[in-house]
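hey can u check if this looks right to u? its 160 residues, i copy pasted from the old doc so theres a chance i mangled smth
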Amino acid sequence: MLWHFSPLTLTLIYATYAFGVLATLLLAGAVSDQVGRRPVLLVALGVLMVSTVLFMLADSAAWLFAARGLQGVATGAALSAASASLLDLHRRRDPAGVGLTNATTAAAGLGLGTLVSASVVQLGWRHACSRMWCCSSCSHLPLPARTGCRSPSSSARASS
Protein backbone atom coordinates (compact mmCIF):
# COMPACT_ATOMS: atom_id res chain seq x y z
CA MET A 1 0.00 0.00 0.00
CA LEU A 2 1.32 3.42 -0.96
CA TRP A 3 -0.25 5.46 1.85
CA HIS A 4 -0.17 2.84 4.62
CA PHE A 5 -3.51 3.66 6.19
CA SER A 6 -6.45 1.45 7.02
CA PRO A 7 -9.63 0.95 5.01
CA LEU A 8 -11.46 2.83 7.78
CA THR A 9 -9.23 5.88 7.22
CA LEU A 10 -9.92 5.71 3.49
CA THR A 11 -13.66 5.55 4.17
CA LEU A 12 -13.43 8.55 6.49
CA ILE A 13 -11.49 10.51 3.86
CA TYR A 14 -14.26 9.83 1.35
CA ALA A 15 -16.94 10.66 3.94
CA THR A 16 -15.28 14.02 4.62
CA TYR A 17 -16.42 15.13 1.16
CA ALA A 18 -20.04 14.25 1.90
CA PHE A 19 -19.94 16.06 5.23
CA GLY A 20 -18.44 19.14 3.54
CA VAL A 21 -21.12 19.18 0.83
CA LEU A 22 -23.96 18.65 3.29
CA ALA A 23 -22.71 21.25 5.77
CA THR A 24 -22.24 23.83 3.03
CA LEU A 25 -25.66 23.19 1.51
CA LEU A 26 -27.36 23.46 4.90
CA LEU A 27 -25.39 26.33 6.42
CA ALA A 28 -24.26 28.44 3.48
CA GLY A 29 -26.70 27.54 0.71
CA ALA A 30 -28.22 31.02 0.62
CA VAL A 31 -24.92 32.90 0.33
CA SER A 32 -25.39 33.32 -3.42
CA ASP A 33 -28.69 35.09 -2.71
CA GLN A 34 -26.78 37.80 -0.83
CA VAL A 35 -23.54 38.14 -2.82
CA GLY A 36 -24.61 36.86 -6.23
CA ARG A 37 -24.30 33.62 -8.14
CA ARG A 38 -21.17 34.41 -10.16
CA PRO A 39 -18.91 35.35 -7.22
CA VAL A 40 -19.90 32.18 -5.36
CA LEU A 41 -19.27 30.03 -8.43
CA LEU A 42 -15.89 31.66 -9.07
CA VAL A 43 -14.76 31.24 -5.45
CA ALA A 44 -15.97 27.63 -5.47
CA LEU A 45 -14.02 26.96 -8.66
CA GLY A 46 -10.91 28.51 -7.10
CA VAL A 47 -11.28 26.39 -3.96
CA LEU A 48 -11.72 23.28 -6.11
CA MET A 49 -8.45 24.13 -7.86
CA VAL A 50 -6.72 24.55 -4.49
CA SER A 51 -8.08 21.20 -3.32
CA THR A 52 -6.74 19.57 -6.49
CA VAL A 53 -3.28 21.00 -5.77
CA LEU A 54 -3.54 19.73 -2.19
CA PHE A 55 -4.37 16.25 -3.50
CA MET A 56 -1.35 16.33 -5.79
CA LEU A 57 1.01 17.48 -3.02
CA ALA A 58 -0.46 15.37 -0.21
CA ASP A 59 2.07 13.29 1.65
CA SER A 60 -0.11 12.09 4.53
CA ALA A 61 -3.69 11.20 5.34
CA ALA A 62 -4.13 14.56 7.09
CA TRP A 63 -3.55 16.38 3.79
CA LEU A 64 -6.03 14.06 2.08
CA PHE A 65 -8.63 14.93 4.75
CA ALA A 66 -7.97 18.64 4.23
CA ALA A 67 -8.16 18.38 0.43
CA ARG A 68 -11.32 16.28 0.54
CA GLY A 69 -12.97 18.65 3.03
CA LEU A 70 -12.18 21.68 0.86
CA GLN A 71 -13.47 19.81 -2.15
CA GLY A 72 -16.75 19.09 -0.36
CA VAL A 73 -17.23 22.67 0.82
CA ALA A 74 -16.51 24.06 -2.67
CA THR A 75 -18.79 21.53 -4.35
CA GLY A 76 -21.62 22.35 -1.93
CA ALA A 77 -21.25 26.06 -2.67
CA ALA A 78 -21.11 25.45 -6.42
CA LEU A 79 -24.14 23.13 -6.35
CA SER A 80 -26.17 25.64 -4.41
CA ALA A 81 -25.29 28.60 -6.64
CA ALA A 82 -25.61 26.60 -9.88
CA SER A 83 -29.03 25.27 -8.89
CA ALA A 84 -30.22 28.76 -8.01
CA SER A 85 -28.83 30.06 -11.32
CA LEU A 86 -30.68 27.38 -13.24
CA LEU A 87 -33.90 28.36 -11.51
CA ASP A 88 -33.25 32.07 -12.21
CA LEU A 89 -32.64 31.39 -15.90
CA HIS A 90 -35.50 28.94 -16.45
CA ARG A 91 -38.31 30.38 -18.58
CA ARG A 92 -41.14 29.27 -16.31
CA ARG A 93 -39.08 29.10 -13.09
CA ASP A 94 -40.13 25.46 -12.80
CA PRO A 95 -38.43 23.92 -9.75
CA ALA A 96 -39.23 20.35 -10.85
CA GLY A 97 -37.64 20.86 -14.27
CA VAL A 98 -34.58 22.52 -12.74
CA GLY A 99 -34.25 19.71 -10.19
CA LEU A 100 -34.41 17.12 -12.95
CA THR A 101 -31.79 18.98 -15.00
CA ASN A 102 -29.55 19.33 -11.97
CA ALA A 103 -29.81 15.65 -11.04
CA THR A 104 -29.32 14.49 -14.64
CA THR A 105 -26.22 16.59 -15.22
CA ALA A 106 -24.73 15.55 -11.87
CA ALA A 107 -25.25 11.87 -12.69
CA ALA A 108 -23.86 12.36 -16.21
CA GLY A 109 -20.81 14.11 -14.78
CA LEU A 110 -20.19 11.29 -12.33
CA GLY A 111 -20.54 8.72 -15.09
CA LEU A 112 -18.30 10.65 -17.47
CA GLY A 113 -15.67 11.15 -14.77
CA THR A 114 -15.65 7.43 -14.05
CA LEU A 115 -15.39 6.59 -17.75
CA VAL A 116 -12.54 9.03 -18.36
CA SER A 117 -10.54 8.01 -15.28
CA ALA A 118 -11.03 4.31 -16.03
CA SER A 119 -9.85 4.92 -19.60
CA VAL A 120 -6.74 6.68 -18.36
CA VAL A 121 -5.98 3.85 -15.93
CA GLN A 122 -6.69 1.08 -18.44
CA LEU A 123 -5.12 2.55 -21.58
CA GLY A 124 -2.47 4.85 -20.19
CA TRP A 125 -2.44 8.62 -20.44
CA ARG A 126 -1.35 8.99 -24.09
CA HIS A 127 -3.70 6.37 -25.56
CA ALA A 128 -6.68 7.56 -23.49
CA CYS A 129 -6.14 11.19 -24.47
CA SER A 130 -5.74 10.40 -28.15
CA ARG A 131 -8.90 8.28 -28.16
CA MET A 132 -10.88 10.91 -26.25
CA TRP A 133 -9.62 13.58 -28.65
CA CYS A 134 -10.71 11.43 -31.60
CA CYS A 135 -14.16 10.82 -30.09
CA SER A 136 -14.67 14.47 -29.20
CA SER A 137 -13.52 15.53 -32.67
CA CYS A 138 -15.89 13.07 -34.32
CA SER A 139 -18.78 14.34 -32.21
CA HIS A 140 -18.43 17.74 -33.94
CA LEU A 141 -18.63 16.36 -37.47
CA PRO A 142 -21.74 17.32 -39.42
CA LEU A 143 -24.25 14.52 -39.69
CA PRO A 144 -25.58 13.53 -43.10
CA ALA A 145 -29.04 14.81 -43.91
CA ARG A 146 -31.88 12.38 -43.40
CA THR A 147 -33.57 11.17 -46.53
CA GLY A 148 -37.33 11.07 -46.76
CA CYS A 149 -37.77 13.36 -43.79
CA ARG A 150 -38.53 17.01 -44.41
CA SER A 151 -39.37 19.78 -42.05
CA PRO A 152 -42.43 21.91 -42.87
CA SER A 153 -40.24 24.86 -43.81
CA SER A 154 -38.15 22.81 -46.27
CA SER A 155 -41.30 21.37 -47.94
CA ALA A 156 -42.73 24.86 -48.31
CA ARG A 157 -39.51 26.04 -49.96
CA ALA A 158 -39.42 22.99 -52.25
CA SER A 159 -42.98 23.54 -53.48
CA SER A 160 -42.47 27.27 -54.26
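Helices lie at 7-28, 31-35, 37-57, 61-89, 95-123, 125-138, 152-159.
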